[in-house]
Amino acid sequence: MFDDPLFIIVLIAVLAVAVILMLGMGGFASGGAFNKKHSNRLMRYRIVAQFVAVLLILLFVWLRGGAN
């Protein structure tokens, strides 16, 4: 499965969502200037990255015949 390029792209997309989410949660937990400056932007990035990741997952399942 790790030799499938689409799987690697899906994995990278999911990891990107997780990293953006952790950055947003860390900024929210610490508060302060970083949270005020970047919280909305990070959550917008997370939503876009999550949308792309879900589309890639659906594409992977569809192309690999997951509906058998």
Automatic annotation (TrEMBL):
The keyword Membrane applies. The chain crosses the membrane at residues 6-33, 45-63. This is Preprotein translocase subunit SecG. Keywords: Membrane, Transmembrane, Transmembrane helix. The keyword Metal-binding does not apply. Residues 1-68 form the HIG1 domain. It comes from the Bacteria. The lineage of its organism: Bacteria, Pseudomonadati, Pseudomonadota, Alphaproteobacteria, Rhodobacterales. Pfam families: HIG_1_N. InterPro entries: Hypoxia_induced_domain (IPR007667). PROSITE patterns: HIG1.
